[in-house]
Design brief:
Blueprint (H helix, E strand, L loop, with lengths): L1 H7 L4 H29 L3 H4 L2 H24 L3 H14 L9
Helix pairs in contact: 2-4, 4-5
Length: 100
């Protein structure tokens, strides 16, 4: 845990627990919210077959990104999750979305 705290630049175990809680809530919430989005977009397993899972994962991704910052803010960890998002998106080649 100490290596993780050092890597993320946090000092307290309490903050680490809060960050884990935010990740857990965000993952569950984004998976739960992807179902109504698929229904709203008319994406069903019957219509898309094996592609349904891939399409749903693609839908979950942006929902997860937004929820991670929002839920992190509610838990008082905006700065950590905003920096986490920027670093992750830059590593995915989407760094152009942020000014230096």
């Amino acid at each position: 845990m100490n290596r993780l705290k050092q890597r993320w630049g946090i000092t307290s175990n309490f903050q680490l627990i809060i960050i884990f809680i935010v990740f857990a809530i965000t993952g569950s919430a984004s998976a739960w919210l992807s179902k109504p989005f698929c229904v709203w977009l008319g994406i069903t397993k019957e219509d898309f077959g094996g592609w349904f899972t891939l399409i749903r994962l693609i839908i979950i991704f942006p929902i997860y990104q937004v929820l991670l910052v929002l839920i992190g803010t509610v838990f008082g960890q905006f700065r950590f999750f905003w920096n986490f998002e920027k670093k992750m998106l830059k590593s995915m080649g989407l760094g152009f979305l942020f000014k230096n």
